[in-house]
Amino acid sequence: MDATRLALDLAVTIRHDGHGGVADDLADTAGLAAWIGDRAAALDCAEDGPPPVDQALLTAVRELRAAVRSLFARAVRPGPPSSADAHRLLPEDEALARLNAAAARVPTAPRLTWDAGTPPVLRDLPAGAPPAADRLTAALARAALAFLGGPDRDRLRACPAPRCVRYFVKDRARQEWCKPSCGNRARVARHHERRRREGGD
Q1: pTM for this structure?
Q2: Residue 25: HSE in the Cβ half-sphere, 13 Å Cα cutoff
Q3: Helix (H, G, I), strand (E, B) or coil at 14
Q4: What is the pLDDT of residues 170-188, one digit of tens each?
């Protein structure tokens, strides 16, 4: 999983719940444990297993997510940010400091692996034996920093569909929404608004 996918995956743990509200996939420790389990290799915890998920780790990951979403809001300007947290974005310098501090918590060193019959693979892996929770939050922070400092940032968008609160990376020139169901919802909303205006006239 690359940095773009991991950073987006963290940001979109806040999503439309299908009933007009907002759902949080990281609302509790069980949600975080499931989310980490699905991404163990990308989060530097595949070999040793995921860290124990407690309230402290949940708070740390949620704080990182708030920083990521605040910087995503900056990245999509002049477009509007996601409506889920437009009213409670962190100050940008605080969001940057939070990500930089989490990434620096675990130093890394390059490590080359070269299995028989495959090309060599160079990865930056944690140096020493940092706590698993620090390794996980540092991996998330580094992914967000790599995404925000990379070329994919210019394709980041906040989905404009009614009630959607997701960010997405625009893959096609004509892509307007994060997924087809959002496009359908937007078209239906426009149709109803047009019918309402025509009825009012």
Answers
A1: 0.85
A2: 17
A3: strand
A4: 999 888 888 887 877 667 6
